[in-house]
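Next up, sample data.

:::
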Amino acid sequence: MKTTVSYPFALLLLIVSFTSLPFATNANIKGIAFKIDIGTFEEKIDEATLFGFSYIIVEKEEGFAYKVGEYKDFIRAQRARNTLITRGYNSSEIEAYFNQREIKVDDALTLLENRNKFDGEAGTGISITTLNSMLDASSSKHLFFTIQVGLYSTQKVDAFFHLPKAVEERVTEIGQYRYTYGEYTSLAAAEQAQELISGYGINDAFVIAYDNGKRISMSLAKEKIKEKTSSGGR
């Protein structure tokens, strides 16, 4: 189906949606979404090379710009980009959006790492000020330890419903789903929680550390704890 809409500075020429095909996505995803910019071309490209994808063409002064897909998961956007590269679109880049407003990919990943805290705030009317506050809140945490109970290429949160409290779902920079249990200011408390987790049949769980919203090595975390202790906790 072809749709033509006129704008003062750009013309949206074509919207193609293959809703029953493997790479198709739901349009206008609320909250965080990822799209793929495959480039701007002087002439329209062969539609057959985008078979299975939903896409939008926008006519600009420099040519026809193509935006492909709309994915709520970063890993699915990565897989789609890899497929597009195999079809010859080597300059394809993933773009991030929050309620249809473009944001930095790093900011989107930060929000995804804290999705449990911010899901209730992801309304369609969110302001830039609120978005920035959410990002500030997610990146201002001090050092803490947590228990990694699983790392998967697809969502597996249902696998941990038997635990005493809810797990956190974080999306890594390569699009994997990391599930963690609890947040502890001391390593000893985290290790006790790890023992508790093993009693629920998760024997491969282990302690990891975060500082200012980013995962750090355990050796660096221990150094930071030692420095804090030697400075009197300042």
In short: The first strand starts at residue 11 and ends at 16. Residues 1-26, 116-126 have pLDDT under 50 and may be disordered. The two ends are 63 Å apart (CA to CA).
